[in-house]
Write a structure and sequence with these properties.
This protein has about 140 residues and is α+β, with helices and mostly antiparallel strands. Helix content is about 25%, strand content about 25%. Strand 2 and strand 3 form a beta hairpin. It is globular.
C-alpha cells in the first residue's frame, strides 16, 4: 500500500523550513527498535557496553573518516539508545550531506554490520529492524 494523505497523517518532527544541510551543531538521539537493551547494561550506576554497543560506538566515531564535512562532539551510549552531537561543516568541492542523510547512512551501515555478526558470531538477532524509525534532534543554537 502506498502513501495516502487521507489515511496517513505522519507529522514531521523537524523544524519547518530549516535547512538541515547548513553548518551547525545537532544533538541527536537514536533508539533501538522496541527499546531492546542490546547495547549494554548498567550495574551500580556504571554502563558496561556489550559487543554490539562497542561496535556502534566504534562506527559512530568513524563517521568523520567517511563523510567530509561531518565532525563529532560529545557521545553517550546507553543500553537501548545513544545520544551524540554531530557538527555539519559543509566543505566546498565535496557533497554536503544533510543531517538526515548522515543518520540514515549510520543506521543502515550499523544494521548491516550487526546482521553480519548475528550470522558470524551468534549475536542476538533482531526482528525486522535494528533501529527505531526516525530519530530525535535538537539544533544547538548557543553554548547554553
Amino acid at each position: 500500500m502506498g502513501y495516502d494523505p487521507d489515511r496517513h497523517h505522519r507529522r514531521s518532527i523537524r523544524l519547518k523550513g530549516y535547512d538541515y544541510a547548513q553548518a551547525g551543531a545537532y544533538f541527536v538521539t537514536l533508539c533501538i527498535h522496541q527499546r531492546r537493551s542490546i547495547l549494554g547494561h548498567i550495574d551500580s550506576g556504571i554502563f558496561y557496553p556489550s559487543p554490539a554497543g562497542l561496535l556502534i560506538q566504534t562506527l559512530w566515531a568513524e563517521l568523520p573518516q567517511h563523510y567530509p564535512g561531518v565532525a563529532l562532539d560529545a557521545f553517550t551510549l546507553m543500553p537501548n539508545h545513544l545520544h551524540g552531537i554531530i557538527l555539519l561543516q559543509p566543505t566546498p568541492g565535496s557533497p554536503n550531506l544533510t543531517l538526515g542523510a548522515v543518520i540514515h547512512r549510520f543506521k543502515s551501515f550499523t544494521t548491516t554490520q550487526y546482521r553480519k555478526r548475528v550470522d558470524d558470531r551468534n549475536w542476538e538477532p533482531f526482528g525486522g529492524r535494528l533501529w527505531q524509525r526516525n530519530y530525535y534532534e535538537h539544533i544547538i543554537r548557543s553554548e547554553d
